[in-house]
Design a protein that fits this description.
Elements: E1 6-7, E2 26-30, E3 34-40, E4 48-49, E5 52-53, H1 55-76, E6 84-94, E7 103-114, E8 117-126, E9 129-140
Antiparallel strand pairs: 1-2, 2-3, 3-7, 4-5, 6-9, 7-8, 8-9
Length: 142
């Protein structure tokens, strides 16, 4: 595994969320059009139920991964990260939910951008198994 580009409190330079709502703990790679993030599932995570990260926790992880990708652009410009909002989630499917102790990894890729809206494709895995796939529209405050 490669050394993370951002981890721990460095993540706060990319996203506006703060504990206990931080749902990424490392960024492995990032560009204008793609990002690879991770979250180690801990028992005290607010989205953990019955020893598994809930569907809403996976979605929040994906959304914060999108925020980190947008936040990276702000980071290189020396600006604070913008607030973002989920506009739509579609083509969403869950194969299984990751357990406490597992590492959730998400790859996001930009499909298109128009009028301040970014359409992303997300694939999340844990322990080499597909967790979820979806498309998400994100709006960013300017």
């Amino acid at each position: 595994m490669s050394t993370p580009l951002f981890q721990g409190e460095q993540i706060f330079g990319l996203i506006p969320q703060r504990p206990p709502m931080v749902m990424i703990d490392s960024v492995l790679s990032v560009s204008k059009d793609a990002i690879n993030t991770c979250l180690t599932i801990e028992e005290n995570n607010v989205f953990v139920y019955s020893n598994h990260l809930s569907e809403s926790g996976v979605i929040e992880h994906i959304a914060q991964s999108a925020a980190a990708m947008a936040g990276y652009d702000c980071y290189v410009k020396g600006l604070a990260p913008h607030l973002g909002y989920i506009g739509e989630i579609k083509k969403c499917s869950f194969n299984h939910l990751p357990e406490v102790g597992q590492r959730l990894t998400t790859n996001l890729a930009v499909i298109g951008e128009a009028a301040g809206v970014t359409l992303l494709n997300a694939v999340s895995e844990a322990e080499g198994q597909l967790v979820a796939e979806c498309q998400m529209k994100i709006f960013l405050e300017q």
